[in-house]
């Protein structure tokens, strides 16, 4: 974040033709969480790259568009720093759930729904995060031995 050290809650950000209210969080990597009444992949594609590289975030940032579905469920669309539109992310789920809880919108146990699946998040008293979800094989490959060769 640009500017002085602070808790970033409900700050304003203008991108293209729209003003957003956002919260920033870190889960070891930086996140910009934007609560909205409606979200979509199109929204993430349109605004995500501009928010990722906004001057407020000099080292770029992950972006989550957040819709609260109830006290125990949220939905997010993700624009990942350096990777673009992303179907699912543990750190994005953690950041979005933590922000939603900090804003008083959800309880400590939250299911995060994403286009790529869902993950359970438990938020501890001091915002410790535990994730529960499935592991799914998405690819198989072989790495060339030259990648592991030691160069002297």
Describe it for me?
The chain is α+β, with helices and mostly antiparallel strands and 152 residues long. It has two helices and nine strands. Strand 8 and strand 9 (129-132) form a beta hairpin. The protein starts with 10 loop residues before the first strand and ends in a 20-residue tail after the last strand. The model has no long low-confidence stretch (mean pLDDT 95).
Structure at a glance:
By secondary structure, this protein is of the alpha+beta class. The chain has two helices and nine strands, in the order βββαβββαβββ. The protein is globular and about 50 Å long.
Kindly report how far apart the N and C termini lie: 41 Å
Helix content: 10-25%
Q: How many β-strand runs?
A: 9
According to CATH, the homologous superfamily is: Diaminopimelate Epimerase, Chain A, domain 1
Kindly report the average pLDDT value: 95
CATH T-level fold name? Diaminopimelate Epimerase, Chain A, domain 1
Number of domains: 1
> What's the CATH architecture name?
Roll
Query: How can the largest sheet be summarized?
Result: 9 strands, mixed
Helix count, per DSSP?
A: 2
The global form is: globular
What amount of the residues lies in strands? 35-45%
SSE pattern: EEEHEEEHEEE
CATH class: Alpha Beta
């Amino acid at each position: 974040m640009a500017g002085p050290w602070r808790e970033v809650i409900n700050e304003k950000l203008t991108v293209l033709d729209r003003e957003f209210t956002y919260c920033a969080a870190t889960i070891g990597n930086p996140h910009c969480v934007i609560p909205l009444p409606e979200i979509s992949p199109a929204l993430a594609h349109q605004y995500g790259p501009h928010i990722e590289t906004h001057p407020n975030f000099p080292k770029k940032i992950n972006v989550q568009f957040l819709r609260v579905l109830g006290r125990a469920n949220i939905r997010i669309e993700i624009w990942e720093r350096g990777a673009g539109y992303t179907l699912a992310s543990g750190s994005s789920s953690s950041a979005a759930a933590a922000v939603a809880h900090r804003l008083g919108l959800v309880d400590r146990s939250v299911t995060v729904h994403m286009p790529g699946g869902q993950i359970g998040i438990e938020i501890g008293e001091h915002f410790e995060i535990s994730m529960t979800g499935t592991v799914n094989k998405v690819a198989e490959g072989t790495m060339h031995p030259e990648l592991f060769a030691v160069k002297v």
